[in-house]
Every structure is written in structure tokens, then in C-alpha cells.
Write a structure and sequence with these properties.
mainly alpha; two-stranded antiparallel ribbon; 77% helix; 4% strand; rod-shaped
């Protein structure tokens, strides 16, 4: 459950900072990530908790982008395979190449046939992945830029948390020093009085 803070009769629900989930994402996984970060960072006060909750959102988005890279390549495999088959096969036209490419995903005979075609030109299944990757290269570059931006934001957020803690620690040290000085002064004045 997301923490709640009470302030003068009102309650602030930090669930506001929960990132929206996609249909394939689990609220349980989000809660586990949040809990692990809270335990690891051990935020003190509402501002630090907000830092952690923002960090959860950045990490979730980074996971999405990383998954998207793999999905883009997977989606391009059938088309890349069809194009390779048509190029290296003397017997298959566009339609036959498309049928073999579709069958390659589910039928072992089709897998063997494709492996034999690829071996005939000294290639293997890695050539399919390479072609699929090249087909979506521009999309992958965009995802990489988005991921880099998220990573930079994450690092900035973590630096901000560290600076906040340093600043707070300095304020506490100053307050303690002032209190000690005041106590010393009061003790000195009390001892000097007759």
C-alpha cells in the first residue's frame, strides 16, 4: 500500500505518484519494486519518499523501453525471414517465402528447411536476427535515446536525493551546534550569577 501523510486534517495520498500500468504489467511487481527501493534507500520524510516514488516510475519506464527493444526485433523476424528466404531460394517466390516464414515459428519441418537454405549460403539463424535488427534499426535508435534520457533522469534524481540528505544533515548539524552553544552560554551565565 502506498504511504499516506496526514497534515492538519487532510491526507496526502502518495499513490498519486504511482505510474500508470500497461495491460501486461503487474501491480504486484510494481509494489515489490517500490518496497525493495523503500527498504534499500530508507527514505526519511515525505520528500524523500517522493524521490523514491519518482525513481520507481523512472525504473518502470526503463524496463518498458528495454522490453520494447526485444519486442521490436521479434516483430520484425517474420518479415526479415521472408526476405532472406526469397533472396536465397531458387524455388520459392514471395508467397512461398511468406508461407515458409510463418511456418518456421511453429513447425519443425519448416525450421529444418530454413536451416538448410541458410546453411547453403553459409548462414544460420543469427542472420535472421541480424536482418530483423537492421530492419528496425531507426526505431531501436529512438528507443536507445529515450532510454538514455531516462537513465540521465534517474541519475539526476539520485544525485538530488544525495544533495537533499547532505543539506538536511548540514542543517541538523548547525541546529545541534546552535543548541549546544546556547546551552553552554546558559550554563556559563548561570555559573557566573551569584
Amino acid at each position: 500500500m502506498t504511504p499516506r501523510y496526514a497534515r492538519k486534517g487532510s491526507v496526502m495520498d502518495l499513490g498519486f505518484f504511482d505510474p500508470p500500468l500497461l495491460p501486461n504489467e503487474s501491480r504486484h511487481d510494481l509494489a515489490c519494486l517500490r518496497r525493495a527501493l523503500m527498504q534499500n534507500i530508507q527514505p526519511v520524510g515525505i520528500l524523500e519518499e517522493i524521490f523514491v516514488l519518482e525513481l520507481v516510475g523512472h525504473l518502470l519506464e526503463m524496463q518498458r523501453l528495454a522490453r520494447s527493444r526485444t519486442l521490436l526485433i521479434n516483430l520484425a523476424i517474420e518479415n526479415a525471414l521472408r526476405r532472406l528466404i526469397v533472396r536465397i531460394s531458387d524455388d520459392l517466390d514471395e508467397e512461398g517465402g511468406a508461407a515458409l516464414a510463418r511456418a518456421w515459428f511453429t513447425e519443425s519441418a519448416a525450421k529444418r528447411e530454413v536451416s538448410k537454405l541458410l546453411a547453403g549460403v553459409k548462414l544460420d539463424e543469427e542472420a535472421i536476427i541480424a536482418r530483423a535488427t537492421m530492419d528496425v534499426f531507426e526505431d531501436l535508435q529512438r528507443l536507445d535515446r529515450m532510454l538514455s534520457l531516462r537513465q540521465a533522469r534517474r541519475e539526476k534524481l539520485l544525485r538530488s536525493l544525495v544533495e537533499f540528505r547532505k543539506s538536511f544533515a548540514a542543517q541538523v548539524q548547525l541546529a545541534v551546534a546552535r543548541a549546544q552553544d546556547r546551552l553552554l552560554l546558559e550554563t556559563t551565565v548561570a555559573q557566573a550569577e551569584p
